[in-house]
Amino acid sequence: MSGTVLENLSNRKLGVLTVSLLLAQMVFFLIGGLIAPAPNNVQVLLATKCVDEGSSALTQQRKWFYPRGEGNCNRVSTLDDPYIIDNHITADHIVFSLQFPNPMEGTREPDMVRWFQYMVGVMMLDIAYQKHNPMIEKPLLGLDLRLGYRDIGDKPGDWKELAHASETRTMDCSLDEQFKEDGYNYNCSMLPLYEYGAVHHNFYLINIRLPITGVTDNKNYGIGTLKDIWVIVIHQNGGFTKVWYSTKTVVTPILIGIIIWFWRRVKQLPRPPVLLEKMLLGLGVVLVINNIPIEWLTLWMELPFMLLLSDIKQGVFFSLLLCFWIIFAGEHLMDDVERNRLVAYWKHLAAVMFGCLCMFIFDMCERGVQLRNPFYSIWATDLGTNLAYSFIIIAGICACLYFILLCWMVFKVFRNITFKRGSLPSMPSKRRAYYEGIIYRFKFLMLITLLCAALTVIFFIVSQVAEGHWKWGEDLSEERSKLEYTSAFYVGAYGMWNVYVFALLCLYAPSHKYGAPALIVDGDGEGEEIATNEEIEFSRLPSEVSQLTAFVKKTAAD
Amino acid sequence: MTCSGQQVNVLVWTAVITLCMFSIQAYSWTLNNFLMSGPKAYLTFSASVAAGAQAGMEECQHQYQWEKWNCPRSSLPLYSHSTPAANSETSFVHAISSAGVMHTLTRNCSAGEFEKCGCDDRKKGQVAAGWTWGGCSDNVQFGEQISKQFVDALETGLDATALMNLHNSEAGRAAVRQTLKRVCKCHGVSGSCSTQTCWLQITEFRQVGNYLKRKYHRAQRVDYKNGELKLGNTGRMEELPSLNKRDLVYLEPSPDYCRTNITEAGSVGTVGRLCSRRKVDSAHRSERKSCKVLCKSCGLKVRKRTIELLTSCNCKFQWCCDVKCEECRETVEKLTCSVI
With contacts defined as CB-CB under 8 Å, which chain A residues touch B9? Predict the structure, then answer.
């Protein structure tokens, strides 16, 4: 019977391994906190109001309106500019135009670079309260949206279309009774504008129209007096991308190495691999797939599906991790039920799979559709919102169900351990110490799992709180804290799950010492080793992956 | 009868332009002189600075329309030659104009109107590398910096008044910061909040005005001692807290604004001023008690006149440009302070 490395490792070696893994974990946090900048950058952009001089505004769709550079648009500073009245300009002729990035201090025009990876745009409308033009309840916004791009070296007006869509958004605005005076704006919630999974070009341009002719469902009526449109573009910081991908590139070969080592050990065994070993291999492989930095390709190619792909990869990894925990607990349950097959866990796995399937469908409905139309948002329509919520709620129920099942299983394992421990004093002292050690290490690993989960949650909260602690009222000269908490969280959490899987692969690999007298070093001599083997033969359970199970079976048989 | 809103708008605009022309003629010398004296690099900002100061002034007049002192144009620091008094009204004017400049600069920076805007050189390496590596600082910071450079450049002296003005300008900029809205967007895995990005959004300037008005009511009197401002002994508190950056401070008590005293106090008195007894939720407290404050406390009578006005009503609006209204006759009660 084989033992795992965990049980056969001396305390000193286990200590060394633990400390080095903790150090690796520290390094991840420090890389995130000290080297990387904040994960995302925000560009707050105010739309320029361009005037479409064309006779029929809606036939002029081919034309681009841009605020800066040669051939820029004819603009008005406010929508009550006398120019609008003098020239009989209607709402159909107004094009809200955003060209980004905005000019910044520096020698050349700043541009978007491929390191930015993705763009998320949201829209905020400044709608002024006017007594004679109030807003109706939940008005509909009919938007004609275009996203264009231009590269360095292109002529100033040479914008090319990336996406074009007519979208509907429902506005959600409020205003307290005491502020219902001219000069106040409605408090409107932000509206999703677009999400695009690639930043392949240098300059981008958004043209927004709110047409009033040719629209159905009373769109763009009763929205009040529109003053301004703000668009906030969020993209990943180049420095963060560099640090992130470098970390991935370094981690990948190490993880591949440990998987090969693990599987060779399993293969050296005289028996076929057990379920837990297969699960461990699966976990490792999925993590490697997660780690392989195919994102480097985005520096050469425009790959908008990367956002969706990384969602799916992460989803697969975490669902496999959830399955692994269930099986890990189940295989250490120490009752007389034969498991070692996935079918034995169908209830738990079904909960995980169904939940993940819901999340996958939801993601395909949002980010999948966005591949075709970046302006699409599932939250824009009532039907979509309900659908999205139902998927999320079902996934949430599955998650709850899963955690109840998991907790129940872990509880049973600990109950069995306590129960079996009662029979320990009747054993010879050396053997008792040995088995107590096994229980201790088993619990130790359970603890590590809980610790990892708890740390992830804690650091997430810390990063959120730290982010919230901007001192707005303070002088700008006061530096923000040197540590980037959010980046530290991302790189740290990423590192943590890598370290976790690494540790599992190390410690749960079959030990070299199988079948050799080495095991007896801690035992009571050859006779007992044989006795152990006999008992295992007796119970006819090939599934034990650890000595712990063997021990419990034995005591149960006693 | 319908009239197109265009005519209404034209009238309003003509009025605004005429008003601007007048004020520019009267005050342009100091303003231009100041703007030209700024560093060459900042010439691009001068239009925004002027617009910001103007916005501050308009807000000031709105905030004080029901008070004895109604923020006359002459109280704007950029427009006046003479050294104004160092009372709490002056402190408000300094704060609101500095806030207006910051607000406008921030806004225009977001609109991409400046060649140089908002990339912080404190970040790593070259500016371009900084942008690529870790993005740029927010536009609010930029607005604050430029506003500070412009408005603080006005105070050349090192006397008590100069220190007070600097402090109040700082308080004005702090007010813009305090009224910023923090907005967050979740964009993590499947749009979850595992990744959340937040930014600061400037609010309408009215909110800044309201904030500063509250600060005005709690303005603190200070004394000038050993080259710095110290909280004056108001008698109420023995344990004096340190001077807060966000508070407005003043050196002298306000004069009696009931009387006309243009030369010294810049006061025009309250005779002929309008007051209001409007009873709606949105009417500010100062509006509700305006007749009491403006007229009765100055020993004046409230005179009631009913006038008939033509107003636009039953308007059919689009979100921009085109308004179709009916014209309605409305009887309005006008209340003025009068000697008899």
Answer: 80, 82, 85
Compute the half-sphere exposure of residue A248: CA atoms within 13 Å on the CB side of its CA.
17
- Could you count the other beta carbons within 10 Å of the beta carbon of residue A493? 21
For residues B143-170, average pLDDT:
86
Lowest mean pLDDT among A289-298, B10-19, B26-35, B304-313: B10-19
Q: Do A41 and B136 touch (CB under 8 A)?
A: yes
Q: Which residues contact A250 (CB under 8 A, 6 or more apart)?
A: none
- Domain-wise residue ranges, chain B: 41-258, 270-339
Q: Which amino acid is at A142?
A: G
Nearest one of A27, A8, A515 to A243, comparing CA atoms = A27
Angle in degrees, CA B323, A124, B49, rounded to 5: 80
Q: Which residues 319-348 of chain A have a CB within 8 Å of chain B? A: none
The closest alpha carbon to A241, from A104, A496, A38, belongs to: A38
Q: Which of residues 141-200 of B touch A (CB under 8 A)?
A: 141, 144-145, 174, 177-178, 180, 182-183, 185, 187, 189-191, 194-200
The residue written with tokens 């004005």 in the block is B172
Please report, to the nearest 10 degrees, the dihedral formed by the alpha carbons of residues B283, B289, B293, B297 taken in order: 170
Stretch A380-403: mean pLDDT, rounded? 89
Whose tokens are 């999320």? That residue is: A392
Q: At what angle do helices A306-331 and A382-421 cross, to 10 degrees?
A: 30
pLDDT for position A469: 55
The answer, yes or no, to whether the previous bond of A134 is cis (omega within 30 of 0) is: no
Q: What angle, 0 to 180 degrees and rounded to 10, lies between the N-to-C axes of helices A275-291 and A485-507? A: 150
What CA–CA distance (Å, rounded) separates A194 from B136? Answer: 22
Tell whether B304 lies on the interface with A, counting CB pairs under 8 A: no
Residue of A nearest to B6 (CA): A85
**What is the amino acid identity at position A15?**
G
Q: What whole-number distance in Å separates Cα of residue B148 and Cα of residue B166?
A: 9
CA A468 to chain centre: 20
In sequence order, the β-bridge partners of residue A41 are A235
Q: Does A468 touch chain B (CB under 8 A)?
A: yes
- For residue B135, the chain A residue with the least C-alpha distance is A41
The residue-averaged pLDDT of A122-141 equals: 89
A132 touches chain B (CB under 8 A): yes
Residue A203 CA to residue A113 CA, distance in Å, equals 9
Residue A95: how many CA atoms within 13 Å on its side-chain side? 28
Structure token digits, residue B35: 């703007």
Taking the C-alpha atoms of residue A398 and residue A43, their distance in angstroms, rounded to an integer, is 38
pTM of whole model > 0.90? no
Rounded distance, CA A111 to CA A100, Å?
8
Kind plus residue range of the DSSP H or E element containing B323? strand B323-338
How many residues are listed for chain B in this entry?
340
CB contact under 8 A, B134 and A37: yes
Q: If contacts are CB pairs under 8 Å, which of residues 296-315 in chain A contact chain B?
A: 310-311, 314-315
B115 touches chain A (CB under 8 A): yes
Whole-number Å distance between alpha carbons of B45 and A411: 68
Under the banding of pLDDT at 50, 70 and 90, the label for residue B277 is: confident
Say how many CB pairs under 8 Å bridge A and B. 210
CB-based contact A105 B118, cutoff 8 Å: yes
pLDDT of A491 higher than 90: yes
Distance CA B59, CA B212 (A): 10
Q: Tell me the one-letter amino acid at B48.
A: S
What is the CATH code for B270-339?
3.30.2460.20
Pairing of strands B267-268, B260-261: antiparallel
Strands B220-225 and B228-231: antiparallel
According to DSSP, the residues that pair with B138 across neighbouring strands are none
Of A44, A47, A226, the CB nearest to B201: A44
The ipTM of this complex is 0.83
